[in-house]
Amino acid sequence: MNRHFIRKSLLAAGLLSSTLISIGVMAKEQYFGHLMFRETPYASYRGIHAMAETNNPNVAHYEFQYDDKGRVTQIAYQLGDKLIRNNQVWDSFIWFAPMVKIAYSPGKEVHTYFDANGNQIETHGKVFRAEYKLNQEGQRTALAFFDKDGKPSESEWGVHRYEWQVAGDRLIREKRFGLDGEQKTIRPDFQFHEIELEYDKDGKLAFMRNLGINGQPTNNDSGAGIDRITYDLAGNFIRWQVYDKDGNPVEGNDPMVHLGEHLYDARGNKIGLRGFDRHGKQVTFSWGVYEHAMSYDSHGNQTDHKTYNEQGELLSHLNFQYNPTGTAFAWLKSLGQNGQLQESPMLGGAAALEFSYQQNGQAERKRYDSQMQPIVAEAPR
Asked: What is the pTM of this model?
């Protein structure tokens, strides 16, 4: 295929590096309520639910900064002008810190990560620096992770290095490797090895096909070989569908449903999750939940996450409470059917966690039982 045609297609899809393609003027900053979904770190960060900062000073948002070439140089998750933690917002699997800075040099794009106090940190395992390799056209061809000592490291998913190759118009092949040189799956709970990523004309991931270890269409142990991803007009990832390698609908991958559906409010906050089998019947996810329901405060912080069984009975209820500025957790509580505190394995057997923060930003957690009595850790034997 003509090399220039491929480059033109990738530019149109927004897949080259972290370049700002979609706006006609070279803005220095833009503000977004959420990030476009990325299954892997190949695609650039993209904001959705654009907002004017002056109209939303007290709503959590992402501030994108750009250089004179229109390239993204920094993304900060903040409330007003203060960096905040993720506050239970689900935007992207490939977003692990309150701020990322991006630097460019010939053939290279380097990402570094920062906490809510602006300190550079290791995140998602031992990732202190993420170093992309770019070809002459500015397209990403590889990514490697390094720790704070500059040594090769792995992410929380056991991946040290990604490799990418153009396979056709809007088609990218991806492999992942650990420090041991062995090929890795996308995530420990997502058993696709080499994959073919297909992007739509707007640069959104539309299909992901499992090519196994040998580069051939392959079903994993659950019978899944293809994931299809669908978005609404706002750019929200609204559903995924699972097929075998031949395109037949199956219930597979970790959730063990054919179709998973995300529900959103008008701001783009995810307020629900449910799954369906290949016949369109709503079914229970593999982890035992029939339906998830979430709610948010005026800042855009998640305040409640409830799960239900098929009979509509409450399985769990996590309540999130924040400091007065809405920038950090103050309490995390497990509540019962009538709103009473109850111990939960999700909180390590506690009913409530109280958060306080050291000067360096590190969180300390104090544990309480259902009677709000402090839980004292047993001395090691």
From this structure: 0.89
